[in-house]
Design a protein that fits this description.
Blueprint (H helix, E strand, L loop, with lengths): L17 H21 L3 E2 L1 H4 L1 E7 L6 H8 L8 E4 L5 E7 L4 H16 L4 E8 L1 H29 L2 H25 L2 E2 L1 H31 L5 H11 L1 H21 L5 H29 L3 H13 L1
Parallel strand pairs: 1-6
Antiparallel strand pairs: 2-4, 2-5, 3-4
Helix pairs in contact: 1-6, 1-10, 5-6, 5-7, 6-7, 6-10, 7-8, 7-10, 8-10, 9-10
Length: 308
């Protein structure tokens, strides 16, 4: 039995409804920026420095007793979080004054306070200087990736395509940060890795649609530009939707079954695939209508390729 998610020859009006998509995306980006400056992000220990200890208790529901013991250590604002099974606890301790020795002493004090029977599954120590370097390196990585993609698309197509792709890509990155600010999921190095992966995934979708636009520009010399762009988006829609759905199935499995360590990464990727699919079809392609893509330029390019 063959399952069809889309009509054989879809003809959705992506370009004719572009003002609705533009308004929706502008609202989404403005809300994301507003959330970032008002609510901020819940930075992980990677960026703030501190100690993270993952433990498994001998019996479930002991988080209250553990919190009472650890609050007596005078190590600052200690956070305990239950995740996955009721006997899995994540302990976050602020960075201690005195550097690595003080942080290690805090870990030892926690182990003494909790006593025997606790299984220590993971302990991470990150100093303030290292966390600051990690934060800025992550930001440089994201900005460098976007600029490199702009140059790549510019050389592969024309500057109009590159600008449209970067606008759509920036939309995906900003809204991802906005979602993390809204729900206060931890923003850490894994999330930065997810943002970079989203950039690659989104641009891959966009390049597929742009390739079809370029092909149709050569094929249909007189067809109105809005009809040609809409046709290109519809012709690649089946491939775009199927790729996104199969990727989402794997990511949803990772989110629920992959464990706490990759849950933030999987969540960012799920959002990124959804918003990246939307922006490739509903933003990047309609934006070309306002970028002034020239048929003459494409014809000249075709002639130059034939001559070479």
């Amino acid at each position: 039995m063959r399952i069809k998610l889309l009509p054989e020859h879809p003809n959705f009006g992506f370009v004719s409804k572009r003002m609705i998509f533009f308004a929706f995306s502008a609202l989404l980006v403005a809300a994301s920026i507003g959330l970032f400056f008002t609510k901020g992000l819940s930075y992980g220990i990677d960026f703030t420095g501190g100690i993270m200890i993952e433990v498994r208790t001998p019996a479930p529901n002991q988080i209250g007793e553990m919190r009472s013991k650890l609050n007596q250590l005078d190590l600052g604002s200690i956070e305990l979080q239950e995740f996955g099974a009721p006997d899995d606890i994540l302990i976050r301790i602020p960075a201690q004054e005195g550097g690595e020795k003080a942080n290690q002493a805090a870990v030892n004090a926690v182990k003494v306070a909790l006593g025997d029977g606790i299984e220590y599954r993971r302990t991470e120590l990150v100093g303030p200087k290292v966390s600051d370097e990690l934060f800025w390196n992550g930001m440089y990585a994201v900005v460098s990736a976007i600029l490199a993609i702009l140059v790549y698309i510019w050389f592969r197509f024309e500057w109009q395509f590159g600008l449209g792709a970067v606008i759509a890509l920036s939309h995906d990155v900003i809204t991802t940060i906005g979602v993390f600010s809204l729900i206060q999921h931890e923003f850490n190095l894994a999330t930065v890795a997810a943002v970079l992966t989203i950039a690659g995934y989104s641009i891959n979708d966009t390049v597929v649609v742009f390739d079809r636009v370029r092909e149709n520009l050569r094929k249909y010399k007189t067809k109105p530009m809005d009809e040609l762009l809409n046709q290109s988006a519809n012709e690649t829609l089946s491939r775009t939707v199927m790729t996104s759905l199969t990727t989402l199935l794997a990511l949803i499995a990772l989110y629920f079954l992959g464990g706490e360590i990759i849950r933030d990464f999987a969540f960012a990727m799920i959002w990124g695939v959804v918003i990246g699919t939307y922006s490739s079809v509903c933003l990047a392609v309609p934006l070309l209508l306002h970028m002034g893509v020239q048929r003459r330029t494409m014809e000249e390019e075709e002639t130059a390729e034939q001559q070479s």
